[in-house]
Amino acid sequence: MSIRRVQVVVLCEGLKDYNFARRCLVRCGWRPDQIAPKVSPAGGGSGFTFVLNEYAAEVRANRNGKKARALLVLVDADTEPEGGREKSLDQRLRDADQKPRKAGERIALWVPKRQLETWIHFLLHGRADEETDYKREHGVRDPEYKPAAEQFAQLLEKRRSLPSKALPSLKKAAVEFERLRTSRSKRPTPTRS
Q: Number of folded domains in the chain?
């Protein structure tokens, strides 16, 4: 029996974001060759602007139905209010004459508030708030990304609930991740080889 490949496109602001998402996806069963990066080029301006500009085309590609495909979008909320980035992405779909995301679509949004480094700090230290700039004030270093991604991926893989003290944006990301695993069309979930 052949299993259709599910390709996951990771649309994100930077290479660190992509590597974090990729580690989570691989741990949860996707093979590395099933994961495609769509990363804002270094020195190309705002990472969020890049994601915003590419979002409608990536959603359209997901919806064309020609192959099993999923989209994971990872953008920092920065200082935007709760749901601000999601609203901007929804508006971009409307501007492109597309419908908003539906419940069964394999389109997941990970929006760390304030930035991915907030999640890293929480995952490694068990505490963080969503107002502090952990990138600048606490100096999250490159070697910390991998173990944090592994810890989050372990929770995702086992479909465990996040601790009650977990950051709201991290809890929301875990729920969003389930969109990549399931859909109304009952496409198969990825398997390990």
A: 1
